[in-house]
Amino acid sequence: MDHSRFESGVIDLRDIAGPFDLQATLESGQSYLWDRADNGMYDSMSVSGGSHWYETVAPPIDGITDTPIVIRVRQQNDQLEWEATGDPVEVLEHLLRLDDDLTSIYDSFPDDELIKTAVEVFHGLRLVRDPPFSALISFICSAQMRVSRIHQMQMSMADAFGTIHTVDNESFAAFPTPSQLAAQSESALRDLSLGYRASYVKRTAEMVSTGEAHPATAAEHEYEAARDYLTQFVGVGNKVADCVLLFSLDYTEAVPLDTWIQTAIAEHFPACDRDGYLETSRAIRDRLGGRYAGYAQTYVFYYLRGGGEVWSVDIANLWWHVRS
DNA sequence: TAGATACCTTATAG
DNA sequence: ACTATAAGGTATC
After folding, report:
1. CA atoms within 13 Å, Cβ hemisphere of A175
2. Which of A71, A132, A226, A305 is least buried, going by the fewest C-beta atoms within 10 A?
3. Comparing C-alpha atoms, which of A100, A107, A103 is closest to residue A129?
4. Residue at shortest CA–C1' distance from B8
5. How many CA atoms lie within 13 A of A206 on its CB side?
6. Percent of chain A with pLDDT over 90
7. Is any atom of nucleic acid chain C found less than 7 Å from the CB of residue A42?
8. Model pLDDT, residue A304
């Protein structure tokens, strides 16, 4: 095997532009790449500011790495500690969007109370740049699913069909490659409790593994054409396509119109509540400041997703949750 | 071309 | 305990 021991190091977060919060970033339902080492992910109302270890097997990334790398990270205040099978700094900058100037991005948000509150509460939440294939599959699985179960399905696929990497006598399962996933039967996927998504996952994995299409190819197009390109995959409509564009392919203007956001639009930005997906999408994108509209959406979604308890408590109480 | 409906499975609220 | 219900939609008629 290429590597069998962890190296370690630290990224000084004072060197990046704007704040960073690892827990808010990884547990906000945009990325299903990471697993919390203590297995506590999503099992309670997660907020931000925690200091947990997260681990993943990052696949090769164009222009950065040509082999998988096992990475473990933890945030301690302004230090991002890492252990990895190689130098993961550029990979982390890429995956966690440490290259974004988050302060400038906040400045691009419209002056709005809901957004302002969400930004205060989840200060430092960044978008992610997940690898395209696993992002595509995870959002296909997201249909009619809670965040915790999407994460669970993603981890099951890795455990069942992915390549195992052993480091310091610990095992880490990579997310399956397109061919590893395409090789599975639909019933094998149903056994992981994917439900009707099983055939979508299999057929999409086949399309990618045969070279018929690849999610990364969408990036050759401008935004709306890229979204259309992605909808050729089975199980991918406009909403899932927008998720892949926003959380994997660098289209920070994409605003996935899920049920939560649609409700928020109707209640909060009624003027943007148009007839079809295309028109509402254009209106809310414009309303949220254009280029970084998807960034603003992610704050709003995470804030609203708090639902039940967190949503109903007042702001002072919410701050208590954040601080503790 | 719009508009309903079925679709898998499980966690959680009653 | 036990049953409804809803969960970051999409494909199909």
Report:
1. 26
2. A305
3. A100
4. A195
5. 12
6. 87
7. no
8. 85
Q: What is the pLDDT of residues A81-132, one digit of tens each?
A: 999 999 999 999 999 999 999 999 999 999 999 999 999 999 999 999 999 9
Nucleotides of B strand lying within 7 Å of any protein CB atom: 7-13
Confidence bin at A49 (pLDDT 50/70/90): confident
CA A191 to CA A289: how far, in whole Å?
Answer: 43
Nearest nucleotide by C1' position to the A197 CA atom: B8
How many C-beta atoms surround the C-beta of residue A44 within 10 A? 9
A196 touches strand C (CB under 7 A): yes
Strand residue runs (E) in chain A = 7-12, 35-36, 54-58, 69-76, 79-84, 164-167, 170-173
Q: Name the nucleotide nearest A144; use CA and C1'.
A: C7
- The number of helices, as runs of H, and strands, as runs of E, in chain A is 16, 7
pTM above threshold 0.85: yes
Q: How far is the CA of A109 from the C1' of C5 (A)?
A: 37
Straight-line distance from CA A304 to C1' C3, in Å? Answer: 28
Asked if strand C contacts A23 at the CB level, meaning under 7 A, the answer is no
The residue behind tokens 């979604």 is A301
Residues 6+ apart with CB under 8 A from A162: A57, A173, A174, A175, A176, A180
